[in-house]
Automatic annotation (TrEMBL):
It comes from Oldenlandia corymbosa var. corymbosa. This is Protein phosphatase. It catalyses: O-phospho-L-seryl-[protein] + H2O = L-seryl-[protein] + phosphate; O-phospho-L-threonyl-[protein] + H2O = L-threonyl-[protein] + phosphate. It is an enzyme of class 3 (hydrolase). Belongs to the PP2C family. Keywords: Hydrolase, Magnesium, Manganese, Metal-binding, Protein phosphatase. The keyword Cell membrane does not apply. Residues 9-254 form the PPM-type phosphatase domain.
Amino acid sequence: MGYDFCYNRSCLRMMAGAYYLPKTALGEDAHFICDEQQTIGVADGVGGWSRYGIDSGVYARKLMDNAVESIQQQPKGKVNPGKVLADAFFNNEAEGGSTACIITLKNNALHAVNLGDSGFLLIRDGEIVYRSPIQQRYFNCPFQLSNSKNGDAPDSARRIVVGVEPGDILVAATDGLFDNIFPDDIADVMNLLSLEEELPPELAARKLAESARQQSLSKQIVSPFTEAAVMAGLDSDVYRGGKFDDVTVIVAYIY
């Protein structure tokens, strides 16, 4: 389903759609699209908690549920993503940990908070004009919101403001996308999809998610995950191929 966001005639609009490919029944990702408040979010429960018998998917889903509750309590058109993240975190008593990226469109700009290795790209005229930075302590160990003593708090998140223009495309996703498809290839896919007139954003999100899943099953490709491992000084042969993971993608058209 697509969503139309706007509060007055002068503001830009964002039409968003999502697609989720879990690796298990529910997976560890979560997301939301809050249509009335021009706000979207993705979260990726950190899988390392499973070694302690903890399902971080529960934490991620509660985080996103809390985020929506916070958004609904804020004035229309004035969502503060930093407050949303803080409210979501401090009202989450679940065990585990999760990355988080929350983005709102207001005053013709994207206002976002991002913690960990989920994030977003902004594509303009076929080129990437912005990519949110990754936060990690070391290879494959992202910053994560958590109630544990070693977890991160919302004030560790990166605050971001990026101006947008009509025709821009926003792609927000968990690392299931970004570990398997290079940013320029994401832009190429979106450019091809843009040739299909009136393609709903949820179908574009599905195309990207399915492409990432296909890449994740390959043992031969050099993926972004492979390149990150090499940059960390690890053996490329060990990390060759994609990374099988949950994949969440939200695509939003700015117009």
